[in-house]
Amino acid sequence: MLRLILEIEGETVTEARCGIGYLHTGIEKNLEYRYWTQGVTFVTRMDYLSPFFNETAYCLGVEKLLGITDQIPERANVIRVMMMELNRISSHLVALATGGMELGAMTAMFLGFRERELVLNLFELITGLRMNHGYIRPGGLAQDLPDNAVTEIRKFLDLMPRRLRDLEDLLNENYIWKARTQGIGYLDLTGCMALGITAQSCVPRVALRPAACRPVLRIRKLRIRRDHRGQL
């Protein structure tokens, strides 16, 4: 958690003092006293908006240390990617929704969280939990997809492009949103490269979020099928 103490003139930040560590949970230290099989339960809580990325990163590290990277079932790898990409959508939706809330676009907040609920419904169907799943395990997964998971995922993938366009249009045509993002937070190329920031100002940074979701919505091409079950 990053705390920023700002001095401002109007909406221009003239000075910033940073404080870090306000959400320090000691997860890394806790893991030192646990078996490697117990680690997923901790790391999934590191970032509640992106739990599957945390779980996968941890499991990839464990698998590399155990020397079993090439033994992970293909189906498990495909499902891991699918879950992370769905997680990517939900994370971007939260960013758009909370950004809208902070800048006065309350409708964008309601729509963003409404669409996120669709993703969490899929997570609950597949893992039994909406957050903090512990689904991805060293060596594979906790369990296979339920019988109706693929059908529900395809319904979501068919619905979401239209919903995403609606949210994007709402923000792009919102006067308050545009007034408070256009030309704000500008950095030249050198500054972006030095700080690892994507895009030169707030408007393109925001535009990248729905744009990042669109390739994810094509994961239907992974063609996960129940009749292609294998080891997990």
Structure write-up:
By secondary structure, the protein is mainly alpha-helical. It has one domain: Cytochrome-c3 Hydrogenase, chain B (Orthogonal Bundle), CATH 1.10.645.10. Helices cover 55% and strands 9% of the residues. Strands 1-2 form a two-stranded antiparallel sheet. A two-stranded antiparallel ribbon has the order 3-4. The radius of gyration is 20 Å and the shape is globular. The relative contact order is 0.12.
Helix percentage: 55-70%
Query: Number of helical segments?
Result: 9
**Strand numbers in spatial order across the main sheet:** 1-2
For the record, give the distance between the C-alpha atoms at the N and C termini, rounded to a whole number.
35 Å
Report the count of strand segments: 4
Q: Residue-averaged pLDDT, rounded? A: 85
Shape: globular
Count of distinct structural domains: 1
Q: What is the CATH H-level superfamily? A: Cytochrome-c3 Hydrogenase, chain B
Strand residues, percent: 5-15%
Indicate the CATH topology: Cytochrome-c3 Hydrogenase, chain B
Organism: Mycobacterium xenopi 4042
Family: Belongs to the complex I 49 kDa subunit family.
Protein name: Respiratory-chain NADH dehydrogenase, 49 Kd subunit
Pfam family, one: Complex1_49kDa
